[in-house]
Amino acid sequence: MTHASFGERALATLIDMLWMIPMALLLHYLLYGADAFSEALEPRPGAEIVSWIVPAVVIINFWLTSQATPGKMVMGLRIVDAETGGMPGVGQYTLRYFGYLVSGIPFALGYLWMLFDSRRQTWHDKIGRTVVIRGKR
Q1: Predicted local distance difference test score (pLDDT) of residue 137
Q2: Enclosing H/E stretch for 79
Q3: Looking at residue 39, what DSSP letter applies?
Q4: How far apart are CA 10 and CA 92, in angstroms?
Q5: Domain presence at residue 12
Q6: Residues 4-20: what's their mean pLDDT?
Q7: What pLDDT score does 41 carry?
Q8: Domain assignment present for 30
Q9: Number of domains the chain is built from
Q10: 1 falls within a domain
Q11: 115-118, Cβ contacts within 8 angstroms, sequence gap of 24 or more
Q12: Among the four 24, 43, 55, 135, which has the fewest Cβ within 10 Å?
């Protein structure tokens, strides 16, 4: 098992941002109209669902069906169970996704952690008991 490098994972994330940000903006526009972006600080009904739940469902679905997001697929990376090397379960993926919050606080140290970890695990990888490796299924 060859663990993905920091650079590979960072590039995969940038690739994912190329489709996720426009999709999120379009969804907000469709739900809230043209003024969706003019009053960003004003609470909107359902904003939590659009901002948190929809992305979680989309990303976890990619992981469940492909073991990767489109960015990881382009980079030839996939997510596997840290112990078995097999496909993680929905519980692991859910913990991993919400572990992103932990990785980002404080100062994105959870993402940088992989630079010092023997298996190149971020904190969200550790929370979900996963690793990111090179190689397709």
Answers
A1: 65
A2: strand 77-81
A3: T
A4: 21
A5: yes
A6: 97
A7: 57
A8: yes
A9: 1
A10: no
A11: 115/6
A12: 43
Pairing between strand 130-134 and 77-81?
antiparallel
Residue 44, exposed/middle/buried by CB under 10 A (0-12, 13-18, 19+)? middle
Percent of the chain clearing pLDDT 90 (strictly above): 73
- Number of CB atoms found within 10 A of residue 103's CB: 20
**Domain assignment of residue 69, given as a range:** 6-134
Q: What is the mean pLDDT of residues 106-130?
A: 96
What is the Cα Rg of the chain in Å?
A: 16
In this structure, the chain runs to a length of 137
Q: What is the pTM of this model?
A: 0.89
Please write the tens of the pLDDT for every residue from 50-93. 778 889 999 999 999 999 999 999 999 999 999 999 999 999 99
Q: Coil, helix or strand for 15?
A: helix
Token pair of 78 as six digits: 């996939």
Instruction: Quote the CA–CA distance of 79 and 88 in Å, as a whole number.
Output: 8
CB 87 within 8 A of CB 67: yes
How far is the C-alpha of 38 from the C-alpha of 47, rounded, in Å?
15
Position 103 in a domain:
yes
Longest dimension (CA), the chain: 49
The more confidently predicted of residues 37 and 18 is 18
